[in-house]
Amino acid sequence: xSAPGYQSPNxxxxxxxxxxxxxxxxxxxxxxxxxxxxxxAGFHMGxxxxxxxxxxxxxxxxxxxxxxxxxxxxxxxxxxxPPASGPVAAPVAAPVAVxxxxxxxxxxxxxxxxxxxxxxxxxxxxxxxFETNNQYEIKNSMGQKIYKAKEKNDCCTRNCCGSLRSFDxxxxxNMDREVIRLIRPFRCATCWCPCCLQEMEVQAPPGTTIGYxxxxxxxxxxxxxxxxxxxxxxxxxxxxxxxxxxxxxxNFELRGKDGxxxxxxxxxxxxxxxxxxxxxxxxxxxxFPLDMDVxxxxxxxxxxxxxxxxxxxxxxxTNQRNTxxx
Length: 326
Description:
25% strand, 4 helices, two-stranded antiparallel ribbon, twelve-stranded antiparallel β-barrel, alpha+beta, single chain, 14 strands
């Protein structure tokens, strides 16, 4: 299944067969993380995690749980195995199925078609306007934290260069292992300089480039190219002429490299009047096809952070940008 509203030709029939012989209805459509939503496809419920608990594992084949000392049940009508005379050995765990070509730590992204990115509120920044390193939590549609991200640069760069500042951003899993690194160089702020527009490099694992996010020149609309490791354009991202989320969401539509119908989107979500006015802590949602290359899913996460800094970052008394001109 692809992102809500974007059907995938590979969508399985209802109900969805699951390993182990049971079935469950497909992941329901709509919204970002409503409490009633079911887990993403392939999500194993045997871990007992609540909505606010982090994901501490990567996907593996789903099988009925067995405990040390537990004798496997015989097939229906088959002979009953005699009890073991000695200690019963624990069952051998099935090997973890790691998809080919998936960078380490990104296996979970193969099972989901949307992520939520929530920026943490920094009290020092909110009260005295002193710019600190941005920090984010990356969650699945159930609100479970799967990654965390933190900007890394120096105090002078943050407070003098504002939203145009260069930075490295480390994205770590819940075991504090760095799985993605984002690198943003210092670039120009206006579309009058098309030779020096915004850009971000995405590495996974750190040191291995998997793609780029590059701003395309346009006099009115914010446009970006989602590129592969050799800078070949894979997808296009286009936002509205006025990127202002006054009491509503701002959507950046994701399309193929030749245009056509949207296949996903990055949405800046309205966070409420008080939070929008007094802080620059933003909430984003990213939707993409379920069967998209996991590396491109990671690059789209980098595109979301770049959009946040370009259009929705406020530093001190400086207002945030609303267009490609400002």
